[in-house]
Amino acid sequence: MLLEQLSINHCRIIDSAELMLSPGVNLISGDNGSGKSSILEAVAILSRGRSFRSPRIVDVIQHKQDHLLIRAKTTDDDNAFSIGIQKSRTSTRIRVNQQDINTQAALSRYLPVTIIDPNSIELVTGSPSLRRAYIDWIAFYLFPEFHKVWQNYQRVLKQRNLCLRVPSYLSALPVWTDELIKAQIRIQDYRERSLLVLKPQLERLCERLLGDHSISIKLTTGFAQAMDLSAESQKAFYLEKRDNEIKSARTLSGAHRADLQIMFNQSLAQQSASRGQLKLIAISMLLAQSRSIDTNNQGKGIIAIDDLAAELDGENKHKLLATLRSLNQQLLLTTTQSDLIPLEADDRMFHVKQGKVFLKNSSV
Ligand SMILES: Nc1ncnc2c1ncn2[C@@H]1O[C@H](COP(=O)(O)OP(=O)(O)O)[C@@H](O)[C@H]1O
Ligand SMILES: [Mg+2]
């Protein structure tokens, strides 16, 4: 998928902007506070329905406006799409090719964007939910049916938790336990299949960015490590933990407690890698995520990096830029340094000033 044209209205400092993007490198330069990150936020909102900087849309909508509107033209193989999202405090309107559609997930399919920003390190150091979302993102794009399976799991989990919380629903617990077991066997299977695709990509990227250090990644299941995950064994497990779960009023084990264990030189990365190494591990993981969905090597995923230079010192910055170039994917890079990366024929450079976006160079 390529992002050909991006229109932004009322997104933070940007009142109105239109960018015709290159399929290669798009360098977005400007001083601090000029609106560079706001451009990437607009892309994030189109791709996932929310910004990576603020969970609240009111923060992102331009002051004194009641909604924001982000539109794009994308292409995939020979097909062109026009997609758009309009968000106010209370409502969302999504359109694909002039038709209203109901779900963000349907929109997300048209724009698989991986965003790397100064908080990305949390993918390694932060809560397991971020790593579950990370692997599930791959499953979402690789396996069209995964999203339904995932939604079903959330629904079943909610019902089962209700049984554990409300005494009058307790009699339905066995039914929902059976449903949960079925659903999480499927979730686990999709996650494992995604991990199989991810692993070689991650190894390659870590080798480039982290040299001799060894990185490995392992999926934990949300159960004790040695437990066999057959339906019978899960059933016995939940029966044994029944009283505990009733006391806690929620499902204590399962796919919603799974995690990715990231090992750096045979120890947990969170505990053994330096801050600079953690950044490179997180960046490798995110680039590998984007590579993983590009099964035909057609540059399917789009990579957006906010403030790349602030992230890394000189040598690592050059290694990363060289690696990015070699990926053959569309790149959106923001920076305060307009000479961050030598531009090639198809690349574009935009300059942002007080929320206005200017095209600085283009060979076309
Ligand atoms: N909701 C908003 N409406 C208008 N301006 C905003 C809003 N939120 C933030 N800003 C302004 O946007 C600017 C930040 O833009 P940002 O994209 O973070 O800049 P950059 O990434 O170039 O440093 C700041 O000047 C800030 O005051
Ligand atoms: Mg910024």
UniProtKB/TrEMBL annotation:
Domain of life: Bacteria
Domain AAA+ ATPase: 22-356
GO biological process terms, semicolon-separated: DNA replication; DNA synthesis involved in DNA repair; double-strand break repair; SOS response
Keyword tRNA processing: no
Binding site for ATP: G30, D31, N32, G33, S34, G35, K36, S37
Keyword annotations of the record: ATP-binding, Cytoplasm, DNA damage, DNA repair, DNA replication, DNA-binding, Nucleotide-binding, SOS response
GO cellular component, one term: cytoplasm
Gene3D superfamilies, sorted: P-loop containing nucleotide triphosphate hydrolases, RecF/RecN/SMC, N-terminal domain
Pfam families, alphabetized: SMC_N
Cell compartment(s), UniProt: Cytoplasm
Protein family (similarity comment): Belongs to the RecF family.
Name of the protein this chain belongs to: DNA replication and repair protein RecF
